[in-house]
Amino acid sequence: MAELALVRPRAGRDRRIMQGALLLAAGFLALFLVLPLAWLLVRAFQDAEGAFVGLANFAAYVTTPALAASACNSLWVAALTTLLVVPLAFCFAYALTRSRIPGKPFFRAVMLLPVLAPSLLPALALIYLFGNQGMLRGWLLGHSIYGPIGIVLAQVFYCFPHAALILSVALAGADGRLYEAAAALKVGRWRMFTTITLPSATYGLVSASVVVFTLVVTDFGIAKVVGGQFPVLATEVYKQVVGQQNFNMGAVVGIVLLLPAVGGFLLERWAQGRQAGVLSGRSVLYAPAARLARDVPLLLLCLAVAVALLSLVGIAVWGSAIRFWPYNLTLTWANYDFGRFDSAGWDALLLSARMAGLTALFGTAIVFLVAYVLERGVASGPLPALVRFAASMPLAVPGLVLGLAYILFFNEPLNPLGFLYGTLAILVLNSLVHFYTVCHLTAVTAIRQLDPEFESASASLKVPVWLTFWRVTLPICLPAILEILVYLFVNAMTTVSAVIFLYGPDTKPASIAVVHMDEAGQSSAAAAMACTILAVNLGLKLLHLAMGSAIERWTQGWRRR
Q1: Alpha-carbon gap, residue 61 to 231, rounded angstroms
Q2: Which one in 82, 175, 256, 259 has a CA-CA gap of 20 to 30 Å to 393?
């Protein structure tokens, strides 16, 4: 009885610690996500003086031809890009998971290149190829790269790895018994594909389509560089806020921009609820047999995709080293003297690295702690449910919308946190919140792999919950934590839309410097800055691979028998 009396106070203290951490998590998400979005919604119903005007701003949006056309343009360009990317990514992922082609590690590595580069890099490369002075400008048969053609081509390059990664995961798990039974019944290969392979990958196809569609609708960088006079929602938000200082109409366009993303998010959730488990405890992992009629075309497809991805990156690198395009093609390092083209110079890259590093360090800690509290703390009640919902919200909020919400919320005179605007801190907070959901889901997945009995056993041994977290949960989940850290760093380095409204004179990130250099006609310098961002992210990814193997040996030995 005496020991039980000692355990109860310890359990009570642990419960209070978890409840306090849950309140802090709720406060963080409310302050830096929910309230800014709510204020964006309020401003959409006000005029410039702050008076309530009802739906007048929305009526003005609908009746303004340029603004209404931007919504239609964004939707059909996103739909066309999705129709091009998803089938191509499916075939590429099918080759990596359901064939016996050689060189799969090489193809996987090349596939990730667009993820490590800012979205402006493929747009700049396309200008060198198909621009007014491009090497292959005649290939467009009189059409201009500045418009929907350029946007679609650049978006295919930028969105391809996102779709291919999702579909690779969807196709990686397959029950070999189904294929063995189909072969025994003399089922044709096409029927086997349509009745076994496609149904099991339905959720992956829906998720990939939603991700690609949302990325295209909400991306700002590509439309800014090669959009020309073709209006889309992302550039219209920028014009309303920066060009015309019309924040209320900018809020309206931001809400319109939010609708496709929210619709896609709800569609993905619906598909997730209808997805059945593919593998069971008795499943046999499918191992494809070598078959030339399938493997040779898939190998040629992977080679073509790899050549296209490497060529665009190579063109951008080559363009960054040209003295003066297109009249003087001699190679030089002068374009990397960024002080000649932008007042921030190399400081923009250093600031981006600082911003990405702080986002990764603080973001990883916050994300993992919040996920741990939700999974191991108080599970029932309205507060945990609200925090879980808030943690999933950023996935449906475009970066431009979140950035606009921040500029309206933190610039409000009555907001005591207004001092954050224009500082590095607001860039870090915005980047963290913008990429929060994917990191949260990664952390939750890692924590759910651990049996809750760890905490129960620790409580019975009178071990504090924080000590169990430090000695057991953290080491076992270290590979997932490293993945979160790298994800936050890479995305913070490459993001444009999330920070385009928030930087100050002394806090200009490298991705924004690329936009400004391109606006000034300094395409070679812009390509050089984009290439340096790619080099930094590529170096971090290589370091991650080296550290990952060491960490796996250090902390994951229990997984090996």
Answers
A1: 14
A2: 82
Give mean pLDDT, residues 413-438. 89
Measured in degrees and rounded to the nearest 5, phi and psi for residue 112 equal -85, -10
Length of the chain: 561
Contacts of 234 (CB under 8 A, 6+ apart): 74, 217, 218, 219, 220, 223, 224, 257, 398, 400, 497
Burial (CB < 10 A; 0-12, 13-18, 19+), residue 236, is buried
Q: What pTM did the predictor assign?
A: 0.83
Indicate the helix (H) or strand (E) that contains 331: strand 328-331
* pLDDT digits 0-9 by tens, 118-137: 888 888 888 888 887 778 87
- Report the number of secondary-structure helices (H) and strands (E) in the chain: 27, 2
At residue 85 the predicted structure's pLDDT band, cuts being 50, 70 and 90, is: very high
CA distance 284 to 173: 10
Which tokens go with 345?
């110079």
- The dihedrals phi and psi of 246, each to the nearest 5 degrees, come to -100, 85
Tell me how crowded residue 476 is: count the other CB atoms within 10 A of its CB: 18
Residues 6+ apart with CB under 8 A from 442: 480, 483, 484, 487
Most confident of 121-130, 373-382, 542-551: 121-130
∠ CA 297-301-305, rounded to 5°: 170
CA distance 439 to 369: 12
The tokens describing 479, both together, are 């590979």
Which amino acid is present at 184?
A
Instruction: Set out the domains of the chain in order of their start, with CATH numbers.
Output: 1-43+335-561 (1.10.3720.10), 58-274+283-320 (1.10.3720.10)
